[in-house]
Specification:
With 443 residues, the protein is α+β, with helices and mostly antiparallel strands. Helices cover 47% and strands 18% of the residues. It contains 15 helices and 15 strands. A hairpin with a 4-residue loop joins β9 and β10. Bound molecules: iron/sulfur cluster. Iron/sulfur cluster binds next to loops. The site of iron/sulfur cluster (SF4) has 12 residues, from loops.
Length: 443
Amino acid sequence: MLLKVLAYSYLNNLYSSRKMEAALKENIQFMWLSGMNKPDHNTLNRFRSQRLKDVLKEIFAQVVMLLVESGHVSLQEIYTDGTKIEANANRYTFVWGKSIKTNKDKISAQLKELWNYAQEIASEELKDNSPVEFKEIDAEKVKRTIVQIDKALKDKEVSPEIKKKLNYARKQWPERLEKYADQEEKLGKRNSYSKTDPDATFMRMKEDHLQNGQLKAGYNVQISTNNQFIVNYSHHQNPNDTTTLPKHIEQFRQLYNQLPQAVIADAGYGSEENYTRIKELGIDPFIKYNCFDRDQNKGLKSQYHDLMYDKENDCYYCPTGKKKDRCGTTKKITENGFVGYYARYHSDNCEGCPLSGQCQVGKKKGTIEINHNLNHLRSEAIDLLNSKKGEYYRRKRGIDVEPVFGNIKQNKGFRRFMLKGLSKTEVETGLLAMAHNLSKLTA
Ligand code: SF4
């Protein structure tokens, strides 16, 4: 009964448990659905946030399977896209990974200063102590070092300024470092989180009414659709769509015990990792990459300029005729642990060349980096996207998945989560997806 009430509420753009409670007392349709039961907002909320969190995806998949059986949906082609939805968190309660690092570095530098001072005036007392490394510090290490410094400086004449610094360090630093350790644990691989919803990450949202580019705490919501019905949804704490696809597709497999034949997505997903992983699963990746439209007109190019590749000798020739020889390979590991290999080519004596700004990797002038595997995957993507099927999918992508976000945000007015936390907000997305599918079915 409670699930029926929740699904019907989300169908009617009612997201607040207090408004649902009121509707159960006033609205005849809600009364009929609940069989005249009147659960209060606490019961509704407990059910939504606790009971549904482990089972809603399964219920959602069962509803999708009914749509598949009735011929409304196919699980063979899925259109995937993502949007950021604001978390139920205060905008000004951010914790930044970078400022934690800066503060820790400051403590570390000051501790080193105190240690050096102690060594200067009490070298005898500190002589047996092994050299202290201050790069990695924690509360315990700081406590231990201060005890050592205190012991060494006992009965010595110490400047009042150092005494003051030591007192401050003794009282403040261990506590602050414990707080930073706790914050780092919450951050994980992220750069930021909100104190009022630690699972939410600060991201740039499309809805920027003040037009000041302010980052807001939110979740990256990924969905896959077919025929404008949602067939899969997942939440991510990373603002970047690229890294979310493997996990999203894996969830599709878990939900339906099968994989789609084709995944269609925009250029935000066109990475080496995604092309490789999707192909490994036997799926056709109809996925653009960021320079796809340019390469369409001018042919596949390197990211530098018109370089000619001599495959036999594994070297490049630049527009001025200079030869660039292979000088090594670099590895780049993505957030998901995927390793990409970049071949380096170098030529000397490039002074005065107007294109030298492009022939540069970091500070190394005359050098370029080429990912041959990615270029190969991109040329395969061009062929796939320019096939008859590819052209059809590209046209359909814009009218399949994108209107679904429009419906959720504009028509259903859902722009901010009511609940806090990754698993609870995912329940809300699940309820929204079910409501969207039901209203689409009856439209
Ligand atoms: S910088 Fe060197 S390699 Fe690059 S285009 Fe100029 S001359 Fe050629």
